[in-house]
Amino acid sequence: MTNSTPRLMFVNLPVADLQASIAFFTALGFTFDPRFTDESATCMVVSDQAYVMLLQRERFAEFTVKPVADAHAGTQGLVCFSAADRADVDAFADAALAAGGSPAKDPSDAGFMYGRSFLDLDGHHWEVMWMDPAAVEAGPEAYAAEGASA
What we know:
alpha+beta, globular
């Protein structure tokens, strides 16, 4: 299916304490759209095309026919976003840990790509990563092959 219109991305996550989640993500520099915020949900702005809806667990349950998973007990998905550079990855992950998040995995360093991960207050797995712009342009495998032959 071809679509020339840019798509907006909305990730929906259940949270136990909406105000605590808002405080956590505010500490990481995110803002919230008041037009889509009430006592049971908020719209966290990631970019002009990506948003995360944080919904009280009961409200989240209204949107699914399956039981709401406990992210502390299992992983249902990973949310990943880019950083400007390696230092930005570290600053963001360190801020998440300082705001009450917990480490998810050890840092990942492939030379041309660097990332760290954390668990938010509800146990959702978040990753922040940087990739060398040349690797983005060429594709990671081609970039790695070029580096190996140099």
